[in-house]
Design goal:
The structure is a single chain. This protein is an alpha/beta fold and 285 residues long. 27% of the residues lie in helices and 29% in strands. It is built from seven helices and 15 strands. A hairpin with a 4-residue loop joins strand 14 (250-260) and strand 15. Helix 2 runs parallel beside helix 6 (237-247).
Length: 285
């Protein structure tokens, strides 16, 4: 049995994983993940009680219960690079014996639900909508470093998108958890979410520097394969879906639409949109 090297999985002196600063007993089977560290408190304020708290860098953790159901909320910060750290160390807490550094024979499957904000690509996507990501489409290069298994449809889609935008690398596409979608998002608008590796040029914003793809938003808006259209964009979903598939966890991304790029409009009360999504998820645990 393979022993994981100390430099591959770094542990703190107290035995916790390096970045999250957590031990296996500090997480539950259901994890709510948010990007903004301040949003952790906006989730846990509704808990019956908080049993454990940890603050480490952008990774803030609150473990507790909601209406008697155990739940953990953790912030990740922005981007798929942070998502990779979060998912890898979370999986280590679930499926690696941290004392022997060996993978456990019996795997623990986590239910991970992202609650995040997102911008709409399509003109008819109303501000304030709660959208579930059927698929995540990654314009970042994280999966170039992993052996991701894609379906025939996912491969076809990403090949066409690469050619359509004239990207120097192939994007990736992964479907989210159908099981979690049926439980948490049965009445939400279904869409397909583009994950960008940055907020400005990778999302078509031109501030002071020349951008390579000045018409990126328009290209994404009009790209489709039959009735498969891209609906919204953000910075984490595809990384979550890909790593969730590779690690064997159930992963779902839920989006509060607070902007519409086609109409150049931004929500007048984004906090209300996010809070209503938080409460909806908690009530469906």
């Amino acid at each position: 049995m393979q022993t994981i090297l100390e430099t591959d999985l770094i542990l703190n002196q107290d035995g916790s994983v390096y970045h999250l600063n957590l031990k296996p007993e500090n997480i539950s089977d259901t994890i709510i993940t948010v990007g903004d560290p301040s949003r952790v408190f906006r989730v846990s304020q509704y808990f019956d009680k908080i049993d454990f708290e940890m603050n480490r860098r952008e990774f803030i953790t609150h473990k507790g219960s909601y209406k008697g159901k155990k739940v953990t909320v953790i912030s990740t910060g922005m981007g798929t690079d942070n998502v990779e750290i979060f998912m890898t160390e979370l999986d280590a807490l679930a499926n690696i014996d941290l004392e022997t550094r060996q993978v456990k024979e019996k795997k623990r499957k986590l239910n991970i639900i992202r609650i995040g904000t997102s911008g709409g690509l399509q003109e008819d996507l109303r501000l304030g909508t709660h959208l579930v990501s059927d698929f995540g489409i990654g314009l970042d290069t994280l999966m170039m470093f992993y052996n991701l298994r894609q379906t025939g449809f996912e491969n076809t889609l990403t090949n066409k998108l690469k050619q359509y935008i004239d990207l120097p690398f192939k994007p990736y596409c992964v479907e989210g958890s159908v099981t979690l979608r049926e439980k948490f998002a049965f009445d939400m608008l279904r869409g397909n979410t583009v994950t960008c590796p940055g907020f400005y040029a990778p999302q078509g914003r031109n501030i002071r520097l020349d951008v390579k793809y000045p018409h990126l938003m328009e290209d994404l808006m009009y790209f489709h394969v039959d009735d498969f259209w891209l609906t919204n964009f953000e910075m984490e979903t595809a990384g979550y879906y890909a790593l969730g598939r590779l690690m064997g966890h159930e992963m779902l991304s839920l989006n509060a639409i607070i902007a519409n790029r086609a109409k150049n409009k931004f929500s007048k009360d984004p906090d209300k949109v996010i809070d209503s999504l938080i409460r909806k998820v908690l009530d469906r645990l």
